[in-house]
Amino acid sequence: MSTIAENIAQINTRIEDAKKNAGRTSGIVQLVAVSKTRKANEVRKAYQAGIHHFGENYLQEALEKQGQLGDLAITWHFIGPIQSNKTAAIANNFDWVHSVDRLKVAQRLNDQRPDHLPPLNICLQVNVSQEETKSGVDLTDLEALAAATATMSRLKLRGLMAIPSPRQNKAQLRNDFKTMRNTLASLNTQGFTLDTLSMGMSNDLECAIMEGATMVRIGTAIFGERH
């Protein structure tokens, strides 16, 4: 069975190969290890193998791990759906939030971000596949949410995040990722300064990188199947 370090090396190779195939000779693609349901010792092994960015979906579980791993210089990303009663803890304990999809959540994160911390890095989650059961702002409402979020002093709007439907074929996935790339570019022509496309997971990171992903969120390919 492959070790976490071996899996990370394989993922890094996949990322570099995908960048070359896409003709992306400059810039990095940040690997965020999705550590939800994983034990603190697994996160520590991944950190020792060179991963310093970790994504969590479940707040209480994440806070417990943060307490156990306080000796490590981890950049913590919250990537799960956000309930309004959880925004204070998220604002106090994370460096990035990828899953902002409504104004109320953005406003609460801004109001509850402590003054002694730098602005909270924010990605707006887009429901790019238009799935009724999935979180994310509709493309038609995105510009208004981006404009409002960009004015908040304790937040730094960095870009967009998406989780396309896993039931799609490769061509459909590429099309969704391309839509995200074009949407980011369109926002930037309107005066935004967005630099982050958070998209791509274990099974589709190559498609995402081909369409401009700057962050990929990888769990299974690093830690193995969840039990």
Give a topology summary:
Layout: H1 4-21, E1 30-34, H2 40-48, E2 53-56, H3 59-68, E3 75-78, H4 87-93, E4 96-100, H5 103-112, E5 120-126, H6 139-150, E6 155-162, H7 170-189, E7 196-198, H8 205-210, E8 215-218, H9 220-223
Parallel strand pairs: 1-2, 1-8, 2-3, 3-4, 4-5, 5-6, 6-7
Helix pairs in contact: 4-5
Q: What would a concise description of this structure say?
A:
This protein is of the alpha/beta class and 227 residues long. The protein is built from nine helices and eight strands.
Q: Could you characterize what this model shows?
A:
This protein is α/β, with parallel strands linked by helices. It has a single domain (4-202, 216-223), classed as Alanine racemase (TIM Barrel, Alpha-Beta Barrel). Helices cover 42% and strands 18% of the residues. It has nine helices and eight strands. The chain has helices at 4-21, 40-48, 59-68, 87-93, 103-112, 139-150, 170-189, 205-210, 220-223, and strands at residues 30-34, 53-56, 75-78, 96-100, 120-126, 155-162, 196-198, 215-218. It has an eight-stranded parallel β-sheet. Strand 5, helix 6 (139-150) and strand 6 form a beta-alpha-beta unit. The longest helix is centred in the C-terminal third of the chain and has 20 residues, at 170-189. The mean pLDDT is 95.
